[in-house]
Amino acid sequence: TNVVYPMLASLVGEHYPPEKRARVMGWIGASGGLSYMLGAPIIAYLASAGGWRLPFAAYAAAIPVAALALTLWRLPATPVKADTVGIGEGFKAIASNRSALAALGAVTLRAASTENIYFYSYTFLREARGASQGQVSLIYSVASLMFLLGSFFCGSFTDRLGLKMSIVTSLGVALLSQAAYPYLPLWMGAAAIIAGHFLFSLQYSAANTLVLEQIPEYRGSMMSLSSALSYLGYGLGTAIGGAALAAAGWMSLNTVL
Predict the structure, then answer these.
(1) Model pTM?
(2) What mean pLDDT is predicted for residues 34-40?
(3) What gap in Å lies between CA 151 and CA 145, rounded to an integer?
(4) What pLDDT is stored for residue 222 in this prediction?
(5) What sign for the dihedral angle of Cα 66, 68, 72, 75?
(6) Could you give the CA distance from residue 104 to residue 72 in angstroms, rounded to a whole number?
(7) pLDDT computed for residue 2 by the predictor
């Protein structure tokens, strides 16, 4: 996935005009969210029906093969450019572009911050609010659905507000939701977490589109760096949040992230 996604995003930049890219990136995000929602119950059902080997044979192996067949069948061929430069040239161009560096830095910081609501919020509901496992599972399912819907509606949102304003607006309100949920009762906090998932998904697809637009001739390098730095951010957010939680409790985690 980490290899395929940057190439997929680069193809979006190559085959779609700028005004349609946010919508297509949102569709890609929504399809990823849908696969997570459907994958877990399908795998659980297959494992219960035929043992642990069946999910690997019927799902983990078959789905990539089907994706490859669909790619070969429908994806238009991209001609190889004779004047293609090396990877190093792309990274040098990115390093000398302040806008591109700012976009990549923002990707890292956003990813670190979102670990609060994506990762720690559900444990907070169990430990600090006394939510049952069933309640947390329900909240997680609804939040996942809202992430899918946020990705799907990203295109309409950016059509109305523009790319940069969409990111600023959705991220600002998402961070308010993230900051508020630890101070609210169980179900109000759950509503803030669910709203945060919707808003973070809006900015996620819009932000990826903004990264895609930075240096058109080096889209592949930009999206590769963006993907790597987003996972770096997730790792940093998890580590920093865990250290803050161990040192001073839930409120310190919320303050740091």
Answers:
(1) 0.80
(2) 74
(3) 10
(4) 85
(5) positive
(6) 31
(7) 63
| Nearest by Cα to 124 from 43, 82, 178 | 178
Q: Which two tokens stand for residue 142?
A: 């609804």
What is the pLDDT confidence band of residue 193, given thresholds at 50, 70 and 90?
Answer: very high
CB atoms within 10 A of CB 167: 24
- C-alpha 257/C-alpha 254 separation (Å) is 5
Q: What is the pLDDT of residues 91-104, one digit of tens each?
A: 888 888 888 889 89
Q: Name residues whose C-beta falls within 8 Å of residue 177's C-beta, 6 or more positions apart in sequence.
A: 117, 192, 193, 195, 196, 199
What is the rounded CA–CA span in Å between residue 207 and residue 25? 10
Residue type at 103 in one-letter notation: A
Say how many Å lie between the first and final Cα of the chain, rounded.
26
Tens-digit pLDDT profile for residues 150-160: 888 887 888 88
Per the model's pLDDT, the better-predicted residue between 252 and 2 turns out to be 252
Q: Please report, for the chain, how many H helices and E strands are present, in that order.
A: 13, 0
**DSSP assignment of 172-203:** HHHHHHHHHGGGS-HHHHHHHHHHHHHHHHHH
Q: Answer for the pair 194, 143: CB distance below 8 angstroms, yes or no.
A: yes
